[in-house]
Amino acid sequence: xxxxxxxxxxxxxxxxxxxxxxxxxxxxxxxxxxxxxxxxxxxxxxxxxxxxxxxxxxxxxxxxxxxxxxxxxxxxxxxxxxxxxxxxxxxxxxxxxxxxxxxxxxxxxxxxxxxxxxxxxxxxxxxxxxxxxxxxxxxxxxxxxxxxxxxxxxxxxxxxxxxxxxxxxxxxxxxxxxxxxxxxxxxxxxxxxxxxxxxxxxxxxxxxxxxxxxxxxxxxxxxxxxxxxxxxxxxxxxxxxx
Length: 242
Known about the structure:
single chain; alpha/beta; 7-stranded mixed β-sheet; two-stranded antiparallel ribbon; 11 strands; globular; SAM-dependent_MTases_sf; S-adenosyl-L-methionine; methyltransferase; Methyltransf_11
């Protein structure tokens, strides 16, 4: 079973106060880049893996999606999502993505935001998603970039000229990494970039777009605190097609 860190009171309280939790998709720095990867969602049957508070599911509904199956392991996340959603187009369910079962050829689009780096059996989940999608369908997801996940310290150091340094800790050693983020003992699954891409290819997906997200000049002008994202990528955006 995947770690259900989001139902810990201290973690849930901290996460609920984050910008992306308060302002939704517009509060997520990477959202404009993610939105550019999305197909036309009108009429699509969508599965949202790790739906959280349901922000993307409601966006998909607003774009004319035929149905959205929104899944998350967190009871508190699902309860909040249900409370914030009135539309019957969206079905929220509590589900452990480590042991997910989806009907074959039952979806036209799959989406996931910052959830799959918690999954140990990434290959198994990718195979499940591949079977659940119709031929030609897309799968768009974001994860923490493996470079961001593997530093020796959660904060940066500085060189003699004041430039930031993000030392890596055994980048080539894959497996669980434990960190203290909003709560102690948060376990994430570190995989090299090549492992992630090759797992998708082995499952039968065709890689359509890979982006190591960093802010552009306009975004930095409006959000100068994002400048540290130029020092090392925090997010990895991937689009694949069945």
